[in-house]
Amino acid sequence: MIFGITLILLGILAAPSLLLSKKPNAQELLDKITPYQGWIGLVFCFWGVWGIISSVLNIGWLTTFPIYWITFLAVNVLLAALGFILGYGMINKHLLAKNEEAKAKGEVLLAKLRPLQGKLGMAAIALGIWQIVTHILFF
């Protein structure tokens, strides 16, 4: 369930226009969070990558809990993608700066993901809600 809640929060950070259209005073909150956005993205990126690895290691769930496993994998893919987009500055500074080839590949990946940020944010919110519902129903 924690994945669903964090995915909803990450989706709100990734698609702030959705939040701003509903609450005009939300800009103040977003301004407070912005300095930490890189660190938040970095943490979620690693958490998503670890979740993807965990999904693959627990592929046996696919035979007994297929909906939950597919949801778990999709949640972690979105966590990793949105975390990468939001935390790219920190990832570039701390991990990619020493290797030019890795830095170039990171910039290419960011260029592909950046136009999808709003859609990924909306998908994250929807999938976060779905993850919470499936967790309640199956566990």
From TrEMBL:
- Highest taxon of the lineage: Bacteria
Q: Which UniProt keywords apply?
A: Membrane, Transmembrane, Transmembrane helix
Sequence intervals crossing the membrane? 37-60, 67-91, 120-138
Q: What name appears for this protein in its UniProt entry?
A: Uncharacterized protein
Give the source species.
Cellulophaga fucicola
Q: What is the organism lineage in this UniProt record?
A: Bacteria, Pseudomonadati, Bacteroidota, Flavobacteriia, Flavobacteriales
